[in-house]
Amino acid sequence: MKILDFFKRKNKNKWVQEWPVPYKADWKTEDIHLRDPFIIREGDSYYLTGTLTHNSISDGYGTPLYVSKDLLTWEGPTLIVDQAKGLGNYSNFWAPEIHKVDNQFWLLVTLEPKGGKRGTYLFISDKIDGEYTLKARVTPESMYSLDGTLYEEDGQKYIVYCYEWVEAHDGQIRVVKLNDDLSIDLTSDKLLFKASDNIFYSKHGVNLITDGPYIYKDNNILKMLWSTFGIGKGYMLLSASSKGGIMDEWVQDTLVYDKDGGHGMIFETFNGDKKILMHSPNGVNASKWQFERPVIIPFGEYAEKRQ
After folding, report:
1. Residue 162: exposed, middle, or buried by beta-carbon count in 10 A (0-12, 13-18, 19+)?
2. Which of 93, 142, 221, 244 has the highest CB neighbour count under 10 A?
3. Confidence of residue 17 (pLDDT cuts 50, 70, 90)
4. 234 has which bridge partners?
5. How many whole angstroms separate alpha carbon 282 and alpha carbon 263?
6. How does pLDDT run across 216-268, given as a tens digit for each residue?
7. Bond prior to 20 in cis (omega within 30° of 0)
8. Cα-to-chain-centroid distance, residue 18
9. What is the pLDDT of residue 151?
């Protein structure tokens, strides 16, 4: 069955989503409308977060959290970050990620402050589903940036992020050191690669897109999932490899998924199986039947070597 066949509904094949999204105890994965999904295991459960959208990618009102025992049925959403609770001067609420750091939970969310440039912000909580406190902006305030992710190497924490195409035109993926006080070391900020370094890219108007970096290791090689728009293929998921550590040279090496899906990450099930999580299709309007949902595929199954 084609992915989009899941999304057809009555009323002239249109999907009508309740808004705000209601809390339910029996969401099926294919019925959750979410961009930029991210899963973390904690205790005996899986926790899913992502970007809420309704009529545009910018009408979300917070960061949702769903919980599941089996990756098939989910309960939620609760809001762990809420525009109505102290964040009224921020919009977007894009691409949340939750990382466990020293028995705390670090939430990275891309926000656009009123009167400022979009960037990734860090919130911290003692509980995965608890109250998250805003601690710092972790991408440069002078740059339109998004989709920050956390990576640690030899005791040093880094933020890997996208310098956004709306300002860079040829979108970039960059890295910056995170200090112990949660400020960023602007002197360390470094370009890793640009969208045009990828042989599969296509232009979005006159711009080139970089989305959703995620750092992982495969056979002790440091790699990165990231997304762009491909020639004749729509939204797609790619992999790049470092010739050493995070600050070393990066090369483009693999097309991972090219069926109009992307913004991927990798997680491990309780059975030890590696999975890729992404959203597909890449629609941005939930009032249409072509709506985005979390999609889970086996790690490596869809990879194909670059020709």
Report:
1. buried
2. 93
3. confident
4. 230
5. 10
6. 999 999 999 999 987 666 789 999 999 999 999 999 988 899 888 999 999 99
7. yes
8. 23
9. 98
Which amino acid is present at 49? T
Give the domain 3-305 fold: Tachylectin-2; Chain A (2.115.10)
**Domain parsing of the chain, residue ranges:** 3-305
Write the pLDDT tens digit of every residue in 179-208.
Answer: 999 999 999 999 999 998 887 665 555 568
What's the rounded mean pLDDT across residues 155-177? 97
